[in-house]
Amino acid sequence: MRIKSLFIPVIALFLSLPALADTVASAPMPPDQVIEQTAKQMFAAVHGHQAELKRHPEALYGIIGKILLPHFDLNYASRLVLGLYWRTATPAQRKAFEDAFYKYLVHSYADGLLKGNYSEHNIQVEPWRGRLSATQATVRSKVMTGNRPPVQVDYAMVRTKDGWQAFDVTIEGISYVLNYRNQFGPEIQQTSLDALIKRLDAEAGTGPAPQPHGGGS
Fold first, then answer.
1. Helix 57-68 vs helix 2-15: angle between axes, to the nearest 10 degrees?
2. Is the pLDDT of residue 133 over 60?
3. Which residues of 104-125 are buried (b: 16+ CB within 10 A; e: fewer)?
4. If you classify domain 2-204 with CATH, what class do you get?
5. SS3 of 148, please?
6. What whole-number distance in Å separates Cα of residue 65 and Cα of residue 87?
7. CA distance 202 to 196
8. Fewer C-beta neighbours within 10 Å, C or N terminus of the chain?
9. Phi and psi angles of residue 143, each rounded to the nearest 5 degrees, phi first
């Protein structure tokens, strides 16, 4: 499915956002520049190392795990994905879901990134026209796909004390948050939240476990 395959390079940008942490700490970088510059850094880190990382995928999981948490709003994304089920979940279930969902995403996207042939040249980020005082932003971009028409990709970002953090992406009108919510909701109804968490943990396999952090919106 085309949409599913495009989530891989797009989320790779999400996972690379913290690469500019030092810059953000001193002077928050506009969200469009964060996306554009970190795309280059992420793909440069993987380019030429696919064979090695395929043999040792845990190395890529570790890289992603190290740079993701400080600047990706996992808690906010998890709340949006679970929706009403977040409200009824216990604190322990919420934490367990965050951990399992994070490992699931890292495992899935790292695997797709290694199998793909992506580079910063595939991404064209449009200038952000928002106000400097804005607390939320939508960064629009286009993913070039060879001879096919470019695909519109919109990043939803929120400004926090740690700088701009990404929490959702919409590809050709399909939100990744809503996409997972629509998948997980029926599964929770048929089984339980605990069963979903167990499945995500099992499918994530050796994905890294997130550590507590103080980021977020």
1. 60
2. yes
3. bbbbbbbbbbbebebebebbeb
4. alpha beta
5. strand
6. 27
7. 10
8. N
9. -105, 120
pLDDT tens digit string along 36-65? 776 776 677 777 777 887 888 787 787 676
Residue that is written with structure tokens 């279930």 in the block: 93
Q: What are phi and psi of 50, to 5 degrees?
A: -60, -45
Is the Cβ–Cβ distance between 68 and 106 less than 8 Å? yes
Are the C-beta atoms of 14 and 72 separated by less than 8 Å?
yes
**Two structure tokens written together for 167:** 């929490």
Rounded CA Rg of the chain = 17
Element (H, E) at 117: none
Largest Cα–Cα separation, the chain:
49
Prediction pTM value: 0.74
Residue 192's Cα: distance from chain center in Å?
Answer: 25
